[in-house]
Amino acid sequence: METAAIQTHGLTRRFGALTAVEDVTLSVAPGQFFGFLGPNGAGKSTTIKMLTGLLEPTAGTVEILGKPFGAGALDLKRQIGVVPEGMALMGRLTATEYLHFVGRMYGLDRETTNLRTQELLDFMQLSNETKKLVTDFSHGMQKKLALAAAVIHGPKVLFLDEPFEGVDAIAAGMLKSMLTGMINRGATIFLTTHVLEIVERLCSHVAIISKGRLVANGSLDELRAGVASTLPGAEQEQRLTLEEIFLSIVGAGEVQESAQELTWLT
Amino acid sequence: MADLGGADRNGMSGAAAVDAGGMLGPLARAQYGALARLRWRMFSNGMRSNKGALELGARTFSYVVYAIMGLGLGTGAGFATYFLVAGGQWRYLTVLFWVLAFLWQVIPVMLASFQEQFDLGILLRFPVRFGSYVLLYLVFGLLDISTVLGGLCCAGIWFGFAAARPSLLPWITLALGVFAGFNILLVRAIFVWIDRWLAQRRTREILGAVFMVALLSMQLLNPTLYQTRHSGKNSPRQQVEKINAAKARYKPWLKKANAVQIWLPPGLAARALRDAIEGRRVQGVASLGLLGFYALLAGGVLAIRLKAEYRGENLGSAPAREMAVLSRTKAVASFPGAASAGREAGWARDGIIGGSGPIAAVMEKDVRSLMRTLPLLYAIGAPLLLVLVFSGVFIKNGGAQPSMFPLALPVCMVYAQLGFTQVFYNNLGTEGAGIQIYFLSPTPFRTVLLAKNLLHSLLFAAVAVLAGVLTTLRLGVADNAVIAATAAWLVFSLPCNLAAGNLFSLKMPYRVNPGRLARQRGSQANALLSLLVQLCVLAVGASVFTLVWFLDRMWLAAPIFLVLAVGAVYAWRRVLDNVDAIAYGRRDDLMQTLMKQS
Hints:
The structure holds 2 protein chains of 2 kinds. By secondary structure, chain A is an alpha/beta fold. Chain A has 10 helices and 10 strands. Chain A has a domain at 1-75 and 195-257: P-loop containing nucleotide triphosphate hydrolases (Rossmann fold), CATH 3.40.50. In chain B, α3 packs parallel to α6 (145-164), α7 (169-198) packs parallel to α11 (281-310) and α15 (374-391) packs parallel to α19 (445-475). Chains A and B meet through α2, α3 and α4 of A and α12, α13, α14, α18 and α22 of B.
């Protein structure tokens, strides 16, 4: 049996009385482009933080590439790249300086770091901004830089928390082709985003979390079949979009109805 | 935003919906109320955690200290005023007003990191009038330290003057009110403009360069001052002659300075009072009018900046910088691979510090960040000015052969070390969201803090050498045993501060906004407790110095400090060995605190 790239068992995180993530068990195979979806506050970012060592689970285990992953798993950290929620940027550095710093923190030698920094800046179309401090970058530029930093050391597993937020269409296209290229070369990508079209186009497998619990997990076709089976006979024949699947699973229909009651809105 | 009462279908009262009624109208008043409730909620919610309670305790203690300080200064100012006015020496009132104005403007810079500031930028999404925005900006700063101290000093002057000349009470009230208003507006104007300049790359660099030049200029003053102080080696008669010669030499300059200062706000405030005492009411009104004009001018300068903020200007995308970027982009487009970009890349390629490991990477990154962080540069540099000023205190002029206080060197070193408080005790404060990299990368936290400690030690060594040179220039070469003891004390105190600093940085960090000198959110608890640790380290040093002084064996101090240093280094290493456990145990809190938007 092939070792999973990412494997969790009963992953749980509580903040005082609030249970943000409860008993999440999932498995991501190597080379899979995995979409992790959920409404706001469902526990996506908390889960990704636990998977990347930014947050300690209250209970449960995380395995990356078949090895237990914790704060001290330094060798495993070399194998993963992360674009976290806060982007992990350092505002008082230029893009070149920042990538150079990150490369060396991941143990790359100076020469390799320089080469990759230049390549990544060219690829992300940031090479004309070498004098600008990161703090002066637009949000989209910061996202591109954060992604460049996440891949500079050539990770085998990539965790992306909302990487397309604030990125223009041209850059988004470029990033998508880069990520697809990584998948083709055997990398595993764990992606959270609210842009369902991107997940639908890129991801082979999807999991949906709602109120801290995993409510769906499987390939898109499996999810589609699961939702379709609950629909009346005639509607079962329709090919459901991911948005329809998502809304059906997380039960957002009630919210949409209640929004119609805000009669004082002009 | 607020419950306005008597609401219509849209929840707005008729008056509020039709006309906000100015900065004191119903809408504005409701907004002030809502903001006051917001502040109260923020305060009470902060109390839910132990950290919040600790902060409150530290803040209360600080305000008590500042109040005592203010009362002391105010009482001093009051007595000085009384004796000057009652003794007919009111022409010297101008000195008092200049000192007060200077302190009013300088104290906020010195204590910028100790004050919590509320960013009113959050109000911009609401229908807040500009007048209300300005009013709130002014009201929320009324409890800052400079206003409290300045206000108490003004109150002292008022009481002193009222006791000496009760008939002029309305006059002095008006004059002091305008003077206080001018200072409040000026200090705010200075800070909002500095923040604006720090937001632009070019002006940020110019400001940094001006700061460094000012610092170096102060150092160049030393030889001059040293020469002047060496007049003390002459006989008393020669000294008197020299003083008279200096008076004659500087008198024309002083006259010119006086002619200028009477047209400036502190001079005008003093002149308005002097005119009132001497019965020249018309001139007094003119002085007061001009002082009022200065207050309006300061208010106008402040309003220009606040208006820009009110219009939603984001300091991260300031217009001048945008233009600079545009022109730079054009230049790059015209000449691909322009020299500047090449230089930048080359600098990054070669690195500042040799080696390619994480330690060198962290050190290089911190050097670059530090050079672009004016508040920290200021914090490190400012105590050197104190060394310059306070070293003069140790020159004794009593005898024919003036002598120096023998322990002046270590005392000056203590001043120099004070500048590193923020650097040592909050060494992750400027990381912001970058803190995540330390948890994501395979570099242990121990390595990160070790790199930071090494860099800070090197910086401190440089500053200590500079402080030593300054002290030597001012006071002459100290005794060899004192030099050895001072060096040994530094070897002891540095690891103590680094060890405690690492713990404080992990357990009670606070975010430093590198682009702001004012409106920082500091941690009073960190500031007070770090001061306490430093006082303990100082107490150990003072005890050893006292002991060897008493025994008349100054040479004994160095070996004692070196023995203590072994223990300090051991403690520092123990702390370093545990930082990974502490950092990972507190990673959520660390990230939340350091990534918090200020």
